[in-house]
C-alpha cells in the first residue's frame, strides 16, 4: 500500500541499531542506545517543554487508543504528586481481546523474526521521541521523581526493551531459516520457521510499568506472539502510550494493529486472572506481589509464566576500606524512590562485635547511628530529598511505613518532605529499624517500601548463613557484601551462588545495588523464589516460540 | 591425585570434537561423530565378537554398578527375542539417591561448563568404545533388530547425546564468564557463574532408552546438574551401562561419581513419581505415555518438565510423481521396528476421489491394495522382514495389534515372522485398517505399535483440515505430505505450522519420516501436545541452569 513502510524495510532502517544491540548483549560492557540525561544539551531546548505540553494535553479526557470490543471507559489513576489526572481508557472485554489477538497472529508470524524486530525497533524509536511525555506519565502514576522517571521509566526502560528485542532476534535466528543436507546420494533442503507460542499477556506493575513491562512485551512480540498489555489500574498511562505507539507502527506497516492491545479495567475486575488462564493465552509476564505471582504460576498452567515478585534483598556488612563511601552509597540505596524498588535492600546484616572500617571499629549501635546520619545528610535539603525519594505510590506502602515507624527499635525515623512544585505530593524519608537475628518473623516478610532492618548477627559467618537461608526460602532480587577480607568476599560469592542471587561487592561510589544496567547486568534470576527468569537471558525468550522444520528432497549435486 | 585426568584436561582432549559438534549444530548439514555402520570395514574384525562376548558376560548375574543407599536387587527385564537375561541391579532408595545427588552438586558446579563438557565427551567416547555391547543390550530389551539397535540405540543415540552436550555448552558459555564494564569514571569487573537448577531426573522408556534418554541426561549434566537415571523396568541394561560409564569417568576425574546414579525398581514401585515430585528434583526428562507425561506436567510442579509423549503421526496423500517410491518408502516407515517408534505414521489421509500418480489415477481401494502389496514385498523374505521389523517389545503392543487385526476393514493383515537366530522372538508384520474420516473415535486415539489407518477424506483440503485439527488436539511427532502440486505443498506447510509439527514432503527415497538426524533435524516440538521441547533447541537446555553474576569496582583505566 502506498506510503507504507514494510516490516522488512523497518528492519533495514534499524539494522545497525539491532546489530549493535546484539553485540552489546553478547559483550556486556556498558552500552546504552537511549541517552539517559534529560538535559537540553542532549535533547535540545524544545524537547522538555514539548513533552510537558503533550502530557498535559492528555489529562482530563479519554485516551486515544482503539481497543477491539471495548465497552465503556475506566479512569482509575491517581497521581502520587497530588495532581488531577482524569484520563480515561476503553474498558476491555477479555474475550474480545483474545479473539482479536488470535486473528492478528498469522500475519504477525509471516512478518518473520527480522521483520518483527524492525517493527519493535521502530516502536522503541518512536517511544524515545516521546520520552519526556512518557516520563511525566511515569512520574504521575508511579511517584518516581521526574529525573528517575525519565531514566528508569524512559531511557533505561527503552534499553531493557531493546535488549529483549536483541535477545529475541538472536534466539529466533540462531537456527538458519534454510539449510541443505547431504548424506551420500541423499540431498535435502530444509526450512525452519519460527512460530510464536500463542497469545502473550503482560501484567504491569504500579511502580515500574515500563521498565518491568517492556522486556516481556518486546520478547513476546519479536518471537511472533500478539500481546495483550494489562496495566495496573494505578499506572495505565505509560503503557497506554506504549500500546498506542505499537498500534500506530503496526498499522503503518500494513499489519493488523491488534497484535498489541490494551486491557484497562476497574480495580478489582480481576481480568488479569481471567486472561492469564484463558486457553489461548500461552505466555504470561507478571511483575508484582508474590501472592498473585505465585497464584499465576500455580494456575496459568496452559502458559509459560515469567514472574518477578518480591524478596528479601540483603546486605552483609563485614568490614570496609571506605566507610564514608559505604554509608553514602547505602543511604542512597535505601532512599531512592522511597525504597519502592524490587531491588532496594531490606535486611542489613551486621555482626554483633561490630565492623572494622578505615574510620576505626564501629559497633552495631554506632553503625546504626552513622547510617541514620548519612540518611539525614542525604535528605536534609527538601528539594534534593524530593528528587531522590519521589512520592509514595499508594496507601498500602504508606500503611506499612507508618506501622514500622511506630514500632520499637526505630534507628531512623521517617519524616514527611514537602515538594515545592507539587504541594499535594506524599513524600516520606525511609525508616530503619533495629532487629536481632532471632527476629526472623519480622525480617523474613517483605516490607515493600521505605522500611529496612539493621539486623545483628553472631558473626559474618552467621550473616552469610542467614543470607543463604532466607533468600533460598523467600527469594531476593539483589544482594550486597562489604568486606576488605578476600576470604569473606570469596565466601560471600559462594553464599550468593548457594542462595541463587546476583551479588554486588563493596559498592561505595556511583553504582548502587538497586540498579542493573541493560546489556550488562542480569536482573532477577530463576535461581531463587523471587523470579522465574533473568532480564534478559535465553530462558526468558526461548519459551516464547518454537522452530518448526519442513524438509524435502532436492537433486543431489 | 596421581593418574587422574581433570575435567579441564578432558575438555582439551575433546575440544576439537566439541567445537565440531557446536558448529554442526549451528550449520545443520549432515554430520555424525559416530559411524553408523557396524561393518568390519569401519570397526575392525574384533569389535563385533568382542561386543557379543561383553554382552553375554553380563547375563545371569548382578550388574556391577554402585548405587548409593541401594537395598537388595531387582531383575525385571525380558528379551523380546526370547533369550534369558537374568541381569539384576541394585534396588534404589529414592531419598538416598536425591541426597547423594545433592552432595555431589557443589563439586560438579565448580567443574564449570567446559569441564563438564569434557567429562560428557569422555563418557560418550567410552560408550562408543562399547557400542556393540550397548547394541546387544538395546536389542534384547527393546526388541530392535541388531542393526537398528546399533544405529538408533548406539551411534545415533550418541550423536543425539553429543548434540545435547554441544547445545548445553553453547548455552552456558554464551554469556562471558568475566567482563569489564566502564561508564565514564565508573569501572567494574563482572563475573558470571553457571549454576544448575537442581537434581535432574531422566525417566527412560522401553523402546528407545538411549536415543530418548541421552539428550536429557547430557543436557542436564553439562548445565551443572546431577542426574538420577530411572530406566523403564523393561529396559534397564542400556542405561545401566551408561550410568556405569558415567560414574567411572567421574571418579577417574576426581569427582564424586554420585553426579550420576541409577534408579532401578520393581515394575509398579512407582519411584518415578516419588522422585519427580521430590522438592530437590528440579528437572524431569520423560519419554513415554501421554498418561504419565501429562501427570508429570501437572504434578512435578517444582521442576521443569521435558516430556515426549505420543501423538497422531499423519500422512496426507494428495498426488505423487513417483508412486513406486512413495509405496516403498511408506511401507518401510510402517514396518521399521514394527511401528514402535514415536514417529511411525498412524493416520494416512487419502481423498475419496483417489490420487493422481505417475502410474495413473488410483482410487482409495487401489491405493490400499498397492500399499498392502508393497508391505508384502518388503516383508516377503523372513530374514529381511525380521531385520526390519525387530520384535514386539511387550504384551501391550501385541494386544493392541491383535485387537486391530481382528476388527473390520483390515487392508493388510498382520502375520507372524520367525527368526532363525532367535526362535523365541515375537515378530509380526503391521496391520493396516481402512477407516473413514467420520471414524474419528478410532483414529484420534494413538494405537502405539504396528497399526496404521488408511482414512478416506472428502478432499485434500479436508485431509489438511483433519490433520490440523487432530494434531492440535492430540499432538504428533511427525507428518508427511505427498503432492505434485506446489499450491498443495504450500498449503501443507502452512497447515503444519498451524498444527505445530515438523513436516516431510514427498519422501520417496532413502529418507523416512520416522527418522530425524541429530545436528540437522529437530525431533519433537513444544508446539503440539506430543512434547514440550525439541531435541535439541535452546528451550531444551536453557531451563536447566541459571547464570548468576557478581560485580565489583576496579580501578578505572
TrEMBL record, chains A, B:
<dbReference type="GO" id="GO:0009898">
    <property type="term" value="C:cytoplasmic side of plasma membrane"/>
</dbReference>
<keyword id="KW-0560">Oxidoreductase</keyword>
<dbReference type="InterPro" id="IPR016161">
    <property type="entry name" value="Ald_DH/histidinol_DH"/>
</dbReference>
<dbReference type="Pfam" id="PF00171">
    <property type="entry name" value="Aldedh"/>
</dbReference>
<dbReference type="InterPro" id="IPR016163">
    <property type="entry name" value="Ald_DH_C"/>
</dbReference>
<dbReference type="InterPro" id="IPR011975">
    <property type="entry name" value="PaaN_2"/>
</dbReference>
<protein>
    <submittedName>
        <fullName>Phenylacetic acid degradation protein paaN</fullName>
    </submittedName>
</protein>
<feature type="domain" description="Aldehyde dehydrogenase">
    <location>
        <begin position="95"/>
        <end position="495"/>
    </location>
</feature>
<dbReference type="InterPro" id="IPR016162">
    <property type="entry name" value="Ald_DH_N"/>
</dbReference>
<dbReference type="GO" id="GO:0010133">
    <property type="term" value="P:L-proline catabolic process to L-glutamate"/>
</dbReference>
<dbReference type="GO" id="GO:0003842">
    <property type="term" value="F:L-glutamate gamma-semialdehyde dehydrogenase activity"/>
</dbReference>
<keyword id="KW-0520">NAD</keyword>
<dbReference type="InterPro" id="IPR015590">
    <property type="entry name" value="Aldehyde_DH_dom"/>
</dbReference>
<dbReference type="InterPro" id="IPR050485">
    <property type="entry name" value="Proline_metab_enzyme"/>
</dbReference>
Amino acid at each position: 500500500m502506498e506510503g507504507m513502510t514494510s516490516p522488512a524495510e523497518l528492519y533495514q532502517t534499524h539494522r545497525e541499531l539491532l546489530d549493535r544491540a546484539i553485540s552489546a548483549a553478547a559483550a556486556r560492557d556498558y552500552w546504552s542506545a537511549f541517552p539517559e540525561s534529560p538535559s537540553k544539551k542532549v535533547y535540545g531546548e524544545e524537547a522538555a517543554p514539548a513533552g510537558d505540553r503533550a502530557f498535559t494535553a492528555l489529562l482530563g479526557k479519554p485516551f486515544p487508543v482503539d481497543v477491539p470490543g471495548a465497552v465503556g471507559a475506566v479512569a482509575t489513576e491517581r497521581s502520587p504528586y497530588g495532581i488531577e489526572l482524569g484520563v480515561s481508557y476503553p474498558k476491555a472485554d477479555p474475550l474480545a481481546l483474545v479473539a482479536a489477538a488470535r486473528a492478528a497472529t498469522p500475519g504477525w508470524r509471516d512478518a518473520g523474526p527480522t521483520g518483527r524486530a524492525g517493527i519493535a525497533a521502530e516502536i522503541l524509536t518512536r517511544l524515545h521521541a516521546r520520552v519526556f511525555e512518557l516520563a511525566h506519565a511515569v512520574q504521575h502514576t508511579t511517584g518516581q521523581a521526574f529525573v528517575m522517571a525519565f531514566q528508569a521509566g524512559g531511557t533505561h526502560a527503552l534499553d531493557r526493551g531493546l535488549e529483549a528485542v536483541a535477545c529475541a532476534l538472536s534466539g529466533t535466528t540462531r537456527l538458519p531459516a534454510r539449510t541443505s543436507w547431504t548424506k551420500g546420494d541423499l540431498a535435502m533442503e530444509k526450512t525452519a520457521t519460527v512460530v510464536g507460542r500463542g497469545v502473550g499477556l503482560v501484567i504491569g506493575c504500579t511502580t515500574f510499568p515500563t521498565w518491568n513491562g517492556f522486556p516481556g512485551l518486546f520478547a513476546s512480540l519479536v518471537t511472533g506472539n500478539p500481546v495483550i498489555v494489562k496495566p495496573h489500574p494505578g499506572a495505565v498511562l505509560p503503557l497506554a502510550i506504549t500500546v498506542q505507539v505499537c498500534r500506530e507502527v503496526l498499522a503503518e506497516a500494513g499489519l493488523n494493529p491488534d497484535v498489541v492491545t490494551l486491557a484497562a479495567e476497574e480495580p478489582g475486575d480481576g481480568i488479569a486472572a481471567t486472561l492469564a488462564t484463558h486457553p489461548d493465552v500461552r505466555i504470561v509476564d507478571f511483575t508484582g506481589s508474590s501472592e498473585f505471582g505465585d497464584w499465576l504460576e500455580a494456575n496459568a498452567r496452559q502458559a509459560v509464566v515469567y514472574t518477578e515478585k518480591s524478596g528479601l534483598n540483603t546486605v552483609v556488612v563485614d568490614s570496609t576500606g571506605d566507610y564514608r563511601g559505604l554509608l553514602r552509597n547505602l543511604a542512597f540505596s535505601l532512599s531512592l524512590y522511597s525504597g519502592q524498588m524490587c531491588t532496594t535492600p531490606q535486611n542489613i546484616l551486621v555482626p554483633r562485635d561490630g565492623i572494622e572500617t578505615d574510620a576505626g571499629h564501629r559497633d552495631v549501635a554506632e553503625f546504626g547511628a552513622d547510617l541514620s546520619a548519612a540518611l539525614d545528610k542525604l535528605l536534609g535539603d527538601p528539594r534534593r530529598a524530593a528528587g531522590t525519594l519521589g512520592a509514595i505510590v499508594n496507601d498500602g506502602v504508606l500503611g506499612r511505613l507508618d506501622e514500622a515507624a511506630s514500632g520499637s527499635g526505630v534507628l531512623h525515623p521517617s519524616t514527611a518532605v514537602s515538594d515545592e512544585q507539587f504541594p499535594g505530593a506524599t513524600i516520606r524519608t525511609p525508616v530503619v529499624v533495629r532487629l536481632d537475628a532471632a527476629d526472623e518473623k519480622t525480617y523474613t516478610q517483605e516490607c515493600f517500601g521505605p522500611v529496612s532492618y539493621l539486623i545483628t548477627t553472631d558473626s559474618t559467618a552467621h550473616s552469610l548463613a542467614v543470607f543463604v537461608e532466607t533468600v533460598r526460602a523467600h527469594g531476593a532480587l539483589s544482594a550486597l557484601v562489604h568486606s576488605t577480607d578476600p576470604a569473606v568476599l570469596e565466601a560471600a560469592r559462594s553464599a550468593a551462588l548457594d542462595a541463587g542471587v546476583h551479588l554486588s561487592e563493596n559498592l561505595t561510589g556511583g553504582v548502587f545495588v538497586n540498579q542493573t544496567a541493560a546489556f550488562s547486568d542480569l536482573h532477577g534470576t530463576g535461581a531463587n523464589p523471587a523470579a522465574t527468569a533473568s532480564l534478559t537471558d535465553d530462558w526468558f525468550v526461548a519459551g516464547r516460540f518454537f522452530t518448526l522444520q519442513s524438509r524435502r528432497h532436492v537433486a543431489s549435486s
